[in-house]
Design a protein that fits this description.
- The chain is mostly helical.
- Strands 1-2 form a two-stranded antiparallel sheet.
- It is globular, with a radius of gyration of 14 Å.
- 39% of the residues are buried.
């Protein structure tokens, strides 16, 4: 299922398979570090998504400690994670235009693959600070 999701994201966002795989891993890693509800949805529904997020996190040198994770959930930490996310996406070869297509493509693929709605741009992916999990909707 993960491969099918990556293939769909690749096609929808106009990315190579390798770039789409790296991008979704980076986005999921960042979302999980911030406790975003969409990360939990992906991990529960797509076998291998958590492993991809952890693997990409390791490759980009993302923080893994408990204290770092707590800091990343503060307002300043959330901003730092998003800034780092953009730098990490650039480091795997995505330019501004590709990044601009990435998040709507994740939303579209999430809806078609497993019925999760309420995502589609950067703010939706990560959610507002202290946003309830109900901000992400699933029809399944």
């Amino acid at each position: 299922m993960l491969n099918a999701f990556i293939n769909e994201l690749s096609k929808t966002a106009g990315l190579t398979h390798a770039k789409a795989e790296a991008a979704i891993g980076i986005v999921l890693n960042a979302a999980e570090r911030q406790g975003a509800p969409i990360a939990a949805e992906f991990f529960a529904r797509i076998p291998g998504a958590r492993t991809l997020a952890a693997t990409m996190g390791s490759q980009i040198g993302a923080p893994t400690g408990v204290v770092a994770r707590l800091i990343e959930r503060t307002p300043g930490g959330r901003m730092a994670v998003v800034e780092r996310l953009m730098a990490d996406l650039h480091s795997v070869g995505l330019g501004p235009y590709e990044i601009g297509r990435l998040f709507p493509a994740i939303g579209k693929c999430s809806q078609s693959a497993f019925g999760v709605s309420g995502v589609g741009h950067l703010g939706d992916i990560f959610g507002a600070p202290n946003a309830p999990a109900s901000a992400v909707r699933s029809v399944a």
